[in-house]
Amino acid sequence: MQFGLVMLYILFVPIGLWLLTEVLWQHGAPFRYRVLAFVGFVGVAAGVGIKNPVVVGIGAFCFAVGQFLTTRYVRKAYHHGWTVSGRRPKGRRAKAR
Prior knowledge:
DUF4491 domain-containing protein
């Protein structure tokens, strides 16, 4: 059981860093959706740390909703994806399907 928790905590680091970079650089979706996903992930990590299944469940729900909304918005509205400058390229809307 202890080895599994250690591996879980180790895996939280790259996933958390990935989500943080998505929050900061992925301008294809509104900031609130990306922050919701990141806060949900932090809630899952905190819930595992304090061993509280309610906190884990709320965090997982927030993460799932945030990721769903982000993915849906990017697929429907924008095609450009990642930007480092923080500005959206003009005139690059996704093609209607």
